[in-house]
Specification:
Blueprint lengths: L7 H5 L28 E7 L4 H10 L1 H5 L1 E7 L3 H13 L6 E5 L3 H6 L19 H8 L8 E13 H6 L8 H14 L13 H10 L5 E4 L2 E4 L4 H16 L10 H9 L4 E5 L2 H8 L7 E5 L12 E9 L6 H13 L1 H11 L27 H9 L11 H18 L3 H18 L4 E2 L1
Parallel strand pairs: 1-2, 1-3, 6-10
Antiparallel strand pairs: 3-9, 4-7, 4-8, 4-9, 5-6
Helix pairs in contact: 2-14, 9-10, 13-14, 16-17
InterPro entries: Bact_solute-bd_prot1 (IPR050490), SBP (IPR006059)
Organism: Streptomyces akebiae
Keywords: Cell membrane, Lipoprotein, Membrane, Palmitate, Signal
Length: about 450
């Protein structure tokens, strides 16, 4: 994405685009205004990560005490609920100093001037993260709107025992994936390789990201929306074709039926992310120790890239009167070895910092994957290949339309390409309605 900082005023003075938020003018501090007061700093941090108070205690008793910077954790709901709360607080000029923000929410917060550019305070933080991960907090510009916290690199999970039973080979390309699904159906018509879940917008976005999609970019003073670009069309046609021919299931995930299919071996693979072991522990408890993980299939054998499904960052708000102090804490939280170990232990997160992914906290595989000693070694190598993303200011609208349009297409086994066009059209229409200039 081109430098969004140059366009902040035109974007921010348009209408806030998420969740019916009202118009917010560009009234926050400028990028070169540290906003710091002299003397001790007392900061408030809005976050949903479990155990964050214990992690913050390490700061308050150590570096924070030395620097006279105290942080207080205020637990929040995640997702759209928190975005709405942040924007509402910002409108009233009463935002916290720091917020946890999902990567796809950052453009909305930036366009509403709710988070600050902390490039001058970020130090050498950039060197701690994979390029594709760091880009999600810069929006492709010279600005730094947050420090990456956790990530969700996508991976391929499969039942090792059942792959052996049915004579299947772990697919290295998506063409091989399709052939594997078809071969399994010939071996046992009652078993599916996996399902296409139209209830999971983030999964589809990650698959498109892996294929090279850039759904939102800017062109001069306008937004450009390309949700129906060739890369995403390829993804939609691929999965739509498998659903239409019956090579895979078409039911949503995270349902009792899906849990049962995994637990009984009626579905034997899952395209997911690094956090999947926690889900499998409850969804398919009887299959513990029977799954393995491998890199996501590629669109060509010469490629080596993955998408991202989930993840968040730590941002400093424009309302903070101690932006410099807040930035120091954000950098410590997501790059300091002790902090990262605590985040993994107390919060159960997979850290964005590359060094932390091979730390002692990940020396042992998840208990569910005790049979794959190198689980986290594989995960860290895959994480390095995370493709860049390009989020926009109304991700929520695109995601909602995906669930509606693709939900109907999956159920009816109809054209996924038409559903993708609906997603594109609805997203563009919403942006125009909200007052954004959109390039045709």
């Amino acid at each position: 994405m081109p430098n969004i900082t140059k366009h902040r005023r035109f974007v921010a003075t348009a209408v806030a685009v998420t969740l019916g938020a009202t118009t917010l003018a560009a009234c926050g501090g400028s990028d070169d205004d540290s906003g710091d007061r002299s003397g001790p700093a007392k900061l408030t941090y809005w976050t949903w990560t479990p155990g964050m108070d214990k992690v913050v205690d390490l700061w308050n008793k150590g570096p924070g005490k030395e620097q006279q910077i105290t942080v207080t954790v205020k637990k929040q709901a995640s997702g759209d609920t928190l975005v709405t709360k942040i924007l509402t607080a910002h409108k009233a000029g009463k935002g916290p100093d720091l917020v946890q923000a999902e990567y796809q929410a950052l453009p909305t917060l930036v366009s509403n001037d709710a988070v600050a550019d902390i490039a001058s305070e970020a130090g050498d933080a950039k060197s701690k993260f994979a390029t594709g991960v760091w880009q999600q907090t810069t929006l492709g510009s010279d600005a730094v709107y947050a420090i990456p916290q956790d990530i969700g690199p996508m991976m391929f999970y499969y039942r090792e025992d059942l792959f052996e039973k049915y004579g299947l080979t772990v697919p290295k390309t998506w063409d091989e994936f399709a052939e594997t699904a078809r071969k399994l159906k010939k071996e046992d018509a009652d078993v599916d390789l996996t399902t296409f879940s139209a209830s999971d917008s983030g999964l589809f976005a990650g698959l498109a990201q892996q294929a090279g999609a850039k759904w939102w970019t800017t062109e001069g003073q306008k937004w450009k929306v390309a949700i129906d670009d060739p890369a995403t069309q390829r993804v939609a046609d691929f999965w739509g074709g498998l659903v239409k021919e019956g090579a895979i299931d078409n039911q949503p995930m995270y349902t009792p039926a899906w849990n049962k299919a995994l637990n009984t071996g009626k579905q034997i693979a899952w395209v997911s992310a690094v956090w999947a072991p926690g889900t499998l522990t409850t969804a398919a408890p009887e299959t513990e120790g029977k799954w393995k993980v491998a890199p996501l299939p590629q669109w060509s054998a010469s490629e080596n890239t993955t998408g991202s499904w989930g993840g968040s960052s730590t941002a400093v708000t424009t309302d903070s009167e101690n932006k410099g102090a807040a930035a120091k804490f954000a950098a410590w939280l997501n790059t300091d070895p002790e902090a990262l170990t605590a985040l993994a232990k107390e919060g159960g997160i997979y850290p964005a910092a590359t060094t932390a992914q091979t730390s002692d906290a990940f020396a042992e595989p998840p208990a569910y994957f005790a049979n794959q000693a190198d689980f986290y070694t594989v995960a860290s190598e895959i994480a390095k290949t995370t493709a860049p993303s390009a989020w926009g200011p109304n991700v929520n609208v695109a995601y909602t339309t995906f669930k509606d349009a693709f939900g109907a297409a999956a159920k009816n086994k109809s054209d996924f390409g038409a559903a993708l066009k609906t997603m594109q059209d609805d997203t563009v229409a919403d942006m125009k309605k909200q007052g954004f200039e959109v390039a045709e």
